[in-house]
Every structure is written in structure tokens, then in C-alpha cells.
Amino acid sequence: MNNNIFPCLWFDKTGNEAARFYTETFGGKITVDTPVVINFELFGQKMMILNAGPQFEKNASVSFMVLCETEAEVDQYWKPLSEGGIVLMELGEYPWSKKYGWVRDRYGVTWQVYLGEKQDEQKILPTLMFIHENNGKAMKAMELYTKIFPNSSIGKVLKYGDGIGDKTHEIPENVQHAHFEIDGYNFLCMDNSYDHKFDFNEGISIVVMTDNQEETDHLWNSLIADGGRASMCGWLKDQFGLSWQIVPKKLIELMNDSDPIKGQKVMQAMSTMQKIIIKDLENAYHN
């Protein structure tokens, strides 16, 4: 499992409270606890929260599949996640699982709690839903991501034509359920034909920590190509509208310097950038 890739959840003020809730629910730990940035681990997997304001709302276009090995474990997570939340699919038996439920928790994060076999040590898998103009593009997205990132592969792909459960609204060649891996980090994805009132946005983004400028340039340029869009401070949207943060590890190192004035200079330099340029950060640090 690669902890240089992890999801970031956008919150408005309640991020610290939510991090405590998730670590209590799943049995994890908070590793960074500041008013704006909270890092925490669940089952050894890194997740991040930004208390960044009301601009973006999390939605089910990116949900989190929790792979459970017993029915008791499903019940253990389902109870707190559903309290004060909105149940999207009732907990019960389905053609794909003896016990499964889909819920939007009280903080707006969407979880699929699933009884089934875990393939490796990664227990929580971000699940991407390709809807509206992206419907039918799940396969294209997997091919793109696995081409861009090293040590990547597409796993099992189930199409609606071969699938199980209700297929009445879906196109047979579209992806009902698929697994892919980018640089050792696992995702799931699906196409969906329903006219949901949401789509990919900055409410949930994927952070990639890079080792050097070469890796930063490669990921940034590749993800932004063919219709993607640059934002500020290492943020971008790819051609499907999924948000990524491409963040050199050097940025974190310089920002966390024991001299707070140097850290502040680095922050100010970073805030003017789209793609993050390590050399310019180092210049700000030394000047």
C-alpha cells in the first residue's frame, strides 16, 4: 500500500470533530491536528482533512468502500456511520454481497460497507462514479491513470452486460464495477446512468506526494492534458473533472522548518503557484 497517495476531504469547520469520529469508528489515530489541516490513519491508510470553508460539498461521486471480513464488522461500522446520516442503500443482502449498505454520514462523506474478501492490506478503497458526460468513461479513465502512474494495473472489470443486480437503466458495455491500482494504491470505479445532482468536485481530491520536480512535472502535465484544468497551489482537475493535488514532499519539509518565518515565506511562494516548482520554494526559503 502506498501512503504517498491518499484522499483529501474538504470541510467547513467540522473537520477536527469528523477526524475524531472516523478514528473512533474505525479504530485509527490522528497524526496531524491543526485548525486547518488534519491527517489521520485508518487501518494504516493515510487520509487528510482540510478545514477550508464552505466553497465545496463532498458527494457520492467519490465514496469509500470498506471491505469487511465478518458480518459483525459490517454492523460495527454501519451503526455509527448511519446515525444522523442518510441511507442510500439499506443494509442487507444483495446479489454481490451477503451484507452491504451505502450511507452518507453526518459529515457528508459517503461509505459503502461491504462484506467480502480483502485482496491486500488496503481496507478502504476510494470509489469513483462516472456520471453525466463521464458516463461510459470509467474504462478510459482507468486506462489513463494506469498509463500515467508507475506500478499500475487494471484488475477485474465487470460490465453491466455481464453483471448482477438491477441493470435496467444501464448500457451493457459500461462498467458496473472495476478495480484498478496506481503505484500500489487501490481504487474502484463504476459508470452510472442516473441523473444525480452531483459530480466530481474539490470536496474530495486525491493527493499525490512526489519525490522530485521530474515526478511532479510528469504527473501534473499528464493529468492536465486533453481537457484538464490547472488550479492553484498544486491543485488540478483532470479531463473527467476529478481533483488532484500534486505536492512535492520538499514543500512539506520546507514549510515545517523550525524557523516559522522561513516556513511562512515558503507558504507565500507556494500560494502564487499553479504547478509547484521546488526550486522557487527553495529560493523563497533561502532569501
TrEMBL record:
Pfam families: 3-dmu-9_3-mt. This is VOC family protein. It comes from the Bacteria. Residues 4-113, 122-247 form the PhnB-like domain. InterPro entries: Glyas_Bleomycin-R_OHBP_Dase, PhnB-like.
